[in-house]
């Protein structure tokens, strides 16, 4: 069951479309290793949905970075992530007063629209019934089978009994658990802004991430033919905690009320490191809720949350923060 009118219409779409190659997590060797392994699998399985024609650059800032260039290189060596000196034709774009070193890496982006089509075809071929525009409103112990889910669609409600339920609705998980009088999952939510931009011609086949600290990342966004721009400091507008003492809240309704955009701050800070990024042109901003596990706020770790029999027998709760997490989830289920 999917609440939206299409698959991959929310958090899987409104992000940087990065297939993580491990480089993003130099302070968590476990997350780096799992990302590297899942990267290879994801690219192989979903090759037709991948864009890898661009050059992906990771740069390490001289100041305020949580790792040095030497530490970043050592981390990449440990997880067997390819790393090459940045080509001179790209290195010239950086202001080297602020960059310690830059590298060309092996990382790509996915086209969310093509991936949706691929997954939809696979589900249909496997005989899986997909119900779009259907909202789960309550979970309880079943009568004829172990577990029951009450759902709403087009103003109608019905109860579906099942042998097992997998709850994978990311930032909306606690909302359903709360309505079902079940224990909440401790999480921290961030209300985020992701900018879609037009880049100068010289940057159309380039993606740049400056790390590891309050910096920016700009990536090709294949489904729109644009680039996405995010910033560690300015992309999250505010955050809130959900747990048994703090029931879930929705900060904005569907009418479209939004905070004031921080795009100008994102662009100006990015242009400190890559001056030509002052030529970016904003097309629109994506607004979405990002969910993090509280214990990982202080490092790079991005483990999957997998809770079995959560409050009710055969209710399984899953939160994964990266799209390639699916392969770790399948392994855990098996």
Polypeptide structure, described:
- Helices cover 21% and strands 31% of the residues.
- It is an alpha+beta fold and 334 residues long.
- It has a single domain (18-333), classed as D-Amino Acid Oxidase, Chain A, domain 2 (2-Layer Sandwich), CATH 3.30.9.10.
- Strands 3, 4, 5, 11, 12, 13, 14, 15 and 16 form a nine-stranded mixed sheet that branches.
- β8 (147-153) and β9 form a beta hairpin.
Short overview:
The protein has 334 residues and is of the alpha+beta class. The protein has helices at residues 29-45, 69-78, 88-91, 112-125, 173-179, 263-273, 326-333, and strands at 18-19, 50-51, 55-61, 83-85, 99-105, 108-110, 135-141, 147-153, 156-162, 165-167, 187-198, 206-211, 216-221, 226-231, 236-242, 281-292, 305-307, 315-319.
Main β sheet profile: 9 strands, mixed
Beta-strand content: 25-35%
Task: Let me know the number of strands.
Answer: 18
Secondary-structure-derived class: alpha+beta
- Predict the CATH topology: D-Amino Acid Oxidase, Chain A, domain 2
Mean pLDDT: 92
- State the helicity in percent bands: 10-25%
The low-confidence runs, each spanning 5 or more residues with pLDDT under 50, are: none
Per CATH, the superfamily is: D-Amino Acid Oxidase, subunit A, domain 2
- Please report the number of helical segments: 7
Number of domains: 1
Which architecture name does CATH use? 2-Layer Sandwich
Which word captures the global form?
elongated
Give the CATH class.
Alpha Beta
How far apart the termini lie comes to 21 Å
H/E series: EHEEHEHEEHEEEEHEEEEEHEEEH
């Amino acid at each position: 069951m999917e609440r939206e009118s299409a698959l991959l219409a929310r958090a899987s779409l409104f992000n940087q479309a990065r297939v993580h190659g491990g480089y993003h997590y130099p302070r968590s060797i476990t997350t780096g290793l799992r990302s590297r392994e899942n990267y290879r699998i994801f690219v192989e399985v979903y090759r037709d949905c991948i864009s890898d024609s661009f050059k992906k650059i990771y740069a390490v800032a001289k100041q305020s970075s949580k790792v040095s260039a030497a530490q970043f290189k050592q981390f990449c060596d440990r997880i067997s992530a390819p790393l090459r000196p940045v080509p001179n034709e790209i290195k010239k774009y950086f202001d080297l007063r602020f960059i310690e070193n830059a590298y060309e890496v092996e990382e790509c982006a996915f086209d969310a629209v093509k991936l949706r089509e691929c997954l939809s075809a696979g589900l249909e071929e496997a005989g899986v019934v997909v119900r779009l525009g259907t909202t789960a409103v309550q979970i309880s112990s079943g009568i004829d089978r172990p577990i029951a889910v009450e759902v709403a669609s087009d103003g109608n409600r019905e109860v579906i009994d099942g042998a097992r339920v997998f709850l994978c609705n990311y930032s909306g998980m606690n909302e359903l658990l709360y309505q079902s009088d079940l224990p909440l999952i401790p999480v921290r939510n961030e209300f985020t802004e992701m900018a879609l931009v037009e880049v100068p011609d010289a940057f159309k086949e380039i993606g740049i991430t400056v790390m590891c600290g309050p910096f920016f990342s700009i990536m090709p966004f294949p489904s729109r033919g644009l680039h996405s721009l995010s910033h560690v400091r300015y992309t999250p507008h505010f955050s809130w905690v959900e747990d048994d003492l703090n029931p879930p809240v929705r900060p904005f309704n569907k009418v479209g009320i939004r905070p004031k955009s921080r795009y100008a701050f994102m662009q100006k800070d990015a242009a400190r490191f890559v001056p030509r990024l002052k030529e970016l042109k904003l097309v629109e901003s994506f607004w979405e809720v990002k969910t993090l596990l509280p214990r990982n706020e202080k490092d790079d770790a991005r483990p999957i949350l997998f809770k079995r029999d959560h409050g009710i027998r055969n209710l399984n709760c899953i939160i994964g923060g990266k799209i390639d997490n699916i392969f770790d989830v399948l392994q855990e289920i098996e």
